[in-house]
Specification:
The chain has helices at 16-27, 52-60, 64-69, 107-118, 170-174, 233-239, 241-251, 303-324, 329-358, 372-380, 382-394; strands at 3-12, 32-35, 49-50, 73-75, 77-82, 85-91, 102-104, 124-127, 131-138, 141-149, 152-163, 180-181, 186-194, 203-208, 211-217, 221-229, 269-271, 276-277, 282-283, 286-288, 294-295. The relative contact order is 0.18. The protein contains eleven helices and 21 strands. Helix 8 runs antiparallel to helix 9 (329-358). By secondary structure, it is an alpha+beta fold. The strands form four sheets. Strands 1, 2, 8, 9, 10, 11, 19 and 20 form an eight-stranded mixed β-sheet that branches. 33% of the residues lie in helices and 27% in strands. The radius of gyration is 22 Å and the shape is globular.
């Protein structure tokens, strides 16, 4: 027979949503197992923008100083470069938070910090290199997952399984969830370039000659995304790597020299952009959160932060039912009721921005253009728009606060 283990909550996926929820539940005395399919957190192409809403949560948890220590770069205001002209973008100076800036934090460092904090509690069990291949059902209820690890296959039974395994969620596929696609006209090409010494890192997006680059600053380099129309990568490769490097230099002149360091197409990764959602985030014994419930576009860098807000709301609403053994489907429904409006508003905003920049034309060769009415509107209402963008990017549509209490030593299970 397969080896069988038991826990109170089994979280599938060791990204921001899964690790954050696991930490909060363990902190509150709930036994939790978090499964991460990779052997480490080192992914170059994970999002790195930690917004004021998340920094506020870290302050509430007493972990802000540790997060700031691993923050590569801070931005109180973001800038956009249109055709060689720098324009002030979202500002965060007015937000009602301790940290009025966005922090660029390598996600592997952030996840390592959270997992180290989680391991301080006996109730936290993070298992790397462990893949959840399927759910286990009994009488129509999800009661656990089947796992695969280097040590073999086994089963974990749990009062609750949380699918936090991202936009390509294994559990979403295994349970035949209905996924509604909003349709996105873009993809992104991700690559790494050295960071020029004279660059200040405050300009996040660059538009020129129908092209768009996003430059995410890290300590020693830039993580760069070239936004392309969906299906356009093959045509770009046919023009050759030299043409690609030249395009980078035209759009962002400060990267012209360092772009020469891009030596092979294998250094350029295609990120397929998705915006989709589940109509129903739960069934008996199973809850979806983060990108598994609502995949976000990279637009605004909000994905990590929305996922973390999901995790906080789930911990707030589920800790006591899990501790008392009274968890019911209505509690899972309450998580969706709490978080779905904010997630859908964020996605609607992203879809509108995609439509404004890329229109309805889906041709891979169509240029990326900012329409005249957007330019006029930005000029007329710039101060208001900067503050609104800072509010909704920095705080989201439904900021959460940690309500689950840290368990005393006597509350920890034997």
């Amino acid at each position: 027979m397969d080896k069988v283990e038991t826990t109170t909550c089994c979280i599938v996926g060791g990204g921001p949503a899964g690790i954050f929820l696991g930490f909060l539940l363990a902190r509150a005395g709930v036994p939790v197992v978090v499964l991460e399919k990779h052997a480490d957190f080192l992914r170059d192409f994970r999002g790195d923008t930690i917004h004021p809403s998340t920094l506020e949560l870290m302050n509430e948890l007493g972990l802000l100083d540790q997060v700031l220590e691993i923050t590569d770069f801070r931005a109180e205001q973001l800038y956009v470069n249109f055709e060689g002209r720098s324009i002030a973008g979202p500002t965060f100076a007015h937000l009602p938070t301790k940290c009025k800036f966005i922090g660029f934090v390598p996600q592997w460092d952030f996840l390592t910090l959270l997992s180290e904090q989680g391991r301080k509690f006996d109730t936290f069990d993070l298992r790397m290199n462990t893949h959840a291949s399927d759910v286990i059902r009994e009488h129509g209820k999800v009661v656990g997952v089947r796992c695969e690890s280097p040590d073999g296959e086994y089963t974990i039974r749990a009062d609750l399984v949380v699918a936090a395994d991202g936009r390509s969620s294994t559990l979403r596929a295994a349970t035949n969830q209905q996924v509604i696609e909003d349709g996105v006209p873009i993809d992104a090409l991700w690559f790494r370039l050295d960071r020029p010494a004279e660059d200040d890192g405050h300009t996040l997006a660059w538009f020129r000659d129908g092209h768009m680059l996003v430059t995410i600053p890290r300590r020693t380099h830039y993580q760069v995304a070239m936004i392309i129309r969906k299906g356009g990568f093959d045509a770009i490769k046919q023009r050759g790597l030299n043409h690609f490097r030249e395009t980078i230099g035209v759009v962002c002149p400060s990267l012209k020299q360092v772009a020469e360091g891009l030596g092979d197409w294998k250094d350029v990764k295609l990120l397929t952009v998705q915006v989709n959602h589940l109509p129903k985030w739960y069934e008996d014994g199973l809850l979806f959160i983060g990108d598994a419930a609502h995949a976000m576009s990279p637009m605004g860098g909000v994905g990590i932060n929305v996922a973390i807000q999901d995790a906080v709301a789930a911990a707030n609403l589920l800790t006591e039912p899990l501790r008392s053994g009274s968890l019911a489907t209505k509690h899972l429904q309450a998580v969706q009721t709490r978080r779905e409006p904010a997630a859908r508003k964020t996605q609607h905003w992203q879809v509108r921005m995609h439509a404004m920049l890329f229109g309805g034309n889906t041709s891979p060769d169509q240029a990326i253009l900012v329409p005249w009415y957007a330019k006029i509107g930005a000029w007329l209402f710039a101060p208001i728009l900067r503050r609104l963008a800072g509010k909704y990017i920095g705080m989201g549509f439904q900021p959460e606060h940690v309500e689950s209490k840290r368990a005393s030593t006597s509350d920890q299970p034997d």
